[in-house]
Design brief:
Blueprint: H1 15-18, H2 22-55, H3 60-67, H4 71-83, E1 87-89, E2 95-97, H5 99-122, H6 126-136, H7 142-156
Antiparallel strand pairs: 1-2
Helix pairs in contact: 2-5, 3-4, 5-6, 5-7
Subcellular location: Cytoplasm
Family: Belongs to the DtxR/MntR family.
Pfam families: Fe_dep_repr_C, Fe_dep_repress
C-alpha cells in the first residue's frame, strides 16, 4: 500500500493527549489568545525596524505594500502603536521606533530567526519556512524556542 499526498491518516494519540485536564486546556487557549493580542503589534514593529535598517525610513505606504493591507489599516494600527509607546512620528516624516518599540522588534527578530533556522534545519524549503515562521514565531514558548535553537545548532555541527 502506498501513501499519496492526499491520504489523511490521523496520528494516534494516547488517551491522555486527546483531552487534557480542563485547567491545562484553559492555559493552552489563554496562551493562544495572548499571542494573538501581540502578534500584529510585533509584526508591525519588526517591519518598521527592517524598513529603517534597509531603507532609512519607514513610511506608511511601504508598510501597507509589504503587509498587503490598506493605508487606512496601517494608520489605525500605527495609532495603536503610538498609544502603546512603541512608535513615534513627526508630521510629514516617517515612523520611528521608541526604545520600547526597538526592544519589541529585537525580541521579535530573534524569535523569528530561531524559528526560521529550525524549520530550515528540518529540511523545510526556504519559501515555506519563511511563511510558516511568520506565524509560528508568535505562538511558541521560550522553552520551545530554546529547544529549536539547540536543535538547529546541533544540525549545523553535523548532528553531534
Amino acid at each position: 500500500m502506498t501513501n499519496s499526498p492526499n491520504d489523511v491518516t490521523p496520528y494516534r494519540l494516547c488517551k491522555a493527549d486527546a483531552l487534557p485536564p480542563s485547567d491545562q486546556h484553559a492555559q493552552q487557549y489563554a496562551a493562544v489568545r495572548n499571542a494573538h493580542e501581540t502578534e500584529l503589534l510585533e509584526d508591525y514593529v519588526e517591519l518598521i525596524a527592517d524598513l529603517l535598517k534597509h531603507q532609512g525610513e519607514a513610511r506608511s505606504t511601504d508598510i501597507a505594500a509589504r503587509m498587503g493591507v490598506s493605508q487606512a489599516t496601517v494608520s489605525k494600527t500605527v495609532t495603536r502603536l503610538k498609544s502603546l509607546g512603541l512608535v513615534s512620528s513627526k508630521p510629514y516624516r516617517s515612523l520611528f521606533l521608541t526604545e520600547k518599540g526597538e526592544a519589541m522588534a529585537a525580541m521579535s527578530h530573534q524569535r523569528h530567526a530561531i524559528v526560521l533556522k529550525f524549520l530550515r534545519a528540518l529540511g523545510v524549503s526556504d519559501h515555506t519556512a519563511r511563511i510558516d515562521a511568520e506565524g509560528m514565531e508568535h505562538h511558541v514558548s521560550q522553552e520551545t524556542l530554546d529547544i529549536m535553537q539547540r536543535f538547529s545548532r546541533e544540525q549545523e555541527r553535523g548532528g553531534s
